[in-house]
Amino acid sequence: MGGTTTSTVPVFKLYGETQHWPTPDLLHCESIAERSRLHNWQIRPHRHADLVHVLFIHQGKVTLELEGERHSLNGAAVVLVPSMAIHGFHFSPDIDGHVITLAKPLADHLNAHIGEHSALKKPGVVHFESAKQGQRIATLVSQIDQEYRQPALGRQTLLEALVQALVVELSRLTISSGNAPKRYGPRQHDRGRHHLENFQALIEQCYREQPSIEQLAEQLGVSSAHLNMLCRQLAGRSALQLLHERLLLEATRQLTYTNMTIGQVADSLGFSEPAYFTRFFKRNTKLSPRDFRLRQSQEC
User: Any idea where the HTH araC/xylS-type domain is (predicted)?
Assistant: First the structure.
């Protein structure tokens, strides 16, 4: 697929969606059919600035485009899609499998623990040398899917433990002799992508302090105007929107998984007054923090 460039490839949160991350979890799990059926089994080439995909294909056919290369898959495999990697799929209607999407903070956390051999760092495809290998991955994916869909005591802790186990297993497979995955690329690491990755890392370090975009740009050694241009071009949002999305994600997590008061949540996220936090939250979710928490408790 020679003519595709990053500047013309759409950026999505989840494919076809432009709204905020739809869950207070740092991961999202669904069957491949759930989303691809809505798009006539074809997911056109796109990319994510702050999401990582792990697709487990149990059976069925897939035409895969990953970082400009096209390949046909038939049967059990795992497709690894890091942030910023251009990817597209055409699935057969009998496709059976799941896609697990990790928000970048969770993916970065796993990468830091696993190190340079983390399966999440490079785009590629893992095929299984034996039925036993495939069954180990299938079991973990099934456990993640079941835990994701039904709230229970310790759900968040168990989900993160299961995902960590999955990434460790996949990382072992990607470095095992004779089972190195087909890697697509090499990935493009131009200066713009490098700046965006550094900006996202800075956000993760200090979003609770709510620094100005000018301060963050200065730390990166670029102007705020240039940083905004890069964010809009590569991530589809302004620099401030990326900062606010991280704040919002943490706010939804605090409101869902802790007993902190609204004022305590506001203070922990750098808001000088709870009223400012409430306005920020309602502007982005259409719900007040109190109403959001009530809705989450009713769903559980």
Answer: 197-295
